[in-house]
Design goal:
Length: about 425
């Protein structure tokens, strides 16, 4: 039996888009490939490639943003460090859900965590002339790897798949001991694997970051979305695991995109520890005339990057932070819908001969959530990605995330209609029949 879609159509599209290796296509390129195939075939594709929120934006944020716009704030430049309400509520939110104290002065709005990481990478590469490299604990968000390439910053990486628990310390220290690592970056829960680093593993990262004077960038885009645990009760344990308990060398990135489904307004907070924010670096003073890290970051780099973050979006995120910390907004309960979708689709993949690539958090199955990873037989990620496109299923390869494993990343956020689950069943059944 032939696949539902003609490989000649896919080849033509790849040629027009000048994509030589489909495994290295960006997330948006992958989506564009599927949309072009949809246009040329007239058939719907299942978009599992991009982490677009599949839930409505939180209403309290929308209302707060509308009030700000009606008040005329669109005509005013926002203050670079952020409006007072944003800074105060971000600080309170971190205390409520991480049990971490970051002063309001250290909570800085950015145009999404994308701008947060881009500018943080630039900052960290300038702190010490001897430290010119960012270390990625992979797999990770592909665009962050693009950011360091764009900036011309050196990078190193390792796949954590084989280095959990006690194996993490010697592996991580083998990089830090070289003396050139300026920053360490990872996401927790992890994009794409959805593994969750434990408190013990985060303690290892924090202790080594302190010992070797590297700054940790902890991406909390999916904060409290380890649905195996009763997270999300403000000011009550258990709290979101974080490196901030184990070092002062941290920058936390908390985005409104996924936890509040507010991706379109491009709003996030970068929280810098009080000790790091106030630390003075001679290299920053020489470059910016401002030696203190917080000043150089906000008034030097962020100012040049965007001249501030949208006034109205700051009011929106501030109000969502407030409502969550006050117990009025159960964002964890709402985002648990993603776990339901993941469980349903994961079962379908497994029933048709696929395997979960990053399947365990040490000795327990990974949580169901926004992402998971699948492989098939001995297919490479590139082969599987291409083959699934011929069955109307679009994803991204694990190699684009820095993974050394073969397979693809599945995002379930756009599986938001019942008939899409039926369509996935039909197409994976056809895939299995043709690949026995």
């Amino acid at each position: 039996m032939k696949p539902p879609f003609d490989s000649a159509v896919l080849d033509s599209i790849l040629e027009r888009m000048d994509i030589a290796d489909i495994a290295q296509a960006t997330i948006r390129q992958s989506g564009d490939i599927a949309r072009l195939m949809e246009r040329e075939t007239g058939a719907e594709f299942l978009h599992l490639e991009m982490g677009v929120p599949g839930l409505p934006p939180e209403h309290v944020g929308v209302e707060a943003e509308c009030r700000a716009l009606h008040a005329g704030l669109a005509s005013q430049y926002p203050p670079m460090p952020g409006i007072p309400a944003f800074k105060e509520q971000a600080s309170r939110f971190l205390r409520a859900f991480l049990d971490v104290k970051v002063s309001p002065e250290g909570c800085i709005p950015t145009v999404g965590s994308m701008q947060g990481s881009f500018t943080a990478f630039l900052l960290l590469s300038q702190l010490d002339p001897k430290k010119d490299t960012i270390l990625f604990i992979d797999p990770g968000f592909p665009v962050q790897r693009s950011q360091v390439r764009i900036l011309g910053i050196r990078s190193e990486s390792f796949d954590i798949y084989e280095y959990r628990s006690e194996k993490l310390r010697p592996k991580l220290e083998s990089y830090l001991a070289k003396g050139n690592i300026a920053g360490i970056v990872y996401s927790n829960p992890n994009n794409p694997a959805w593994i969750c680093l434990t408190e013990e593993e985060l303690q290892t990262i924090g202790e080594l970051a302190t010992r070797y004077d590297a700054v940790v960038i902890e991406d909390l885009a999916y904060l409290c979305m380890d649905f195996r645990k009763p997270l999300g009760r403000p000011f009550e344990a258990p709290y979101q695991a974080t490196v901030a308990r184990y070092t002062d060398n941290y920058m936390l990135m908390v985005s409104g995109s996924k936890i509040f489904s507010y991706a379109g307004q491009r709003i996030a907070a970068v929280a810098i520890s009080d000790a790091l924010r106030n630390r003075v670096y001679p290299a920053l003073r020489e470059r910016y005339g401002m030696g203190r890290l917080g000043d150089a970051y906000v008034l030097g780099i962020l100012y040049a990057a965007s001249s501030g973050t949208s006034h109205s979006a700051q009011y929106a995120l501030a109000e969502m932070f407030r409502a969550a910390a006050d117990g009025e907004l159960d964002f964890v309960g709402e985002t648990a819908e993603y776990a339901r979708r993941a469980a349903l689709t994961k079962e379908t993949f497994l029933r048709h001969g696929f395997r979960i690539v990053y399947d365990k958090d040490r000795d327990v199955p990974v949580s169901d959530g926004f992402f998971y990873t699948v492989g098939y037989g001995k297919m490479t990620g590139s082969e599987l990605l291409r083959e699934l496109l011929l069955y109307g299923i679009c994803a991204i390869s694990l190699s684009s995330t820095g993974s050394r494993q073969e397979g693809i990343r599945v995002c379930i956020s756009q599986m938001n209609r019942p008939e899409q689950f039926d369509l996935l069943e039909t197409r994976l059944a056809a895939f299995e029949q043709n690949h026995r």
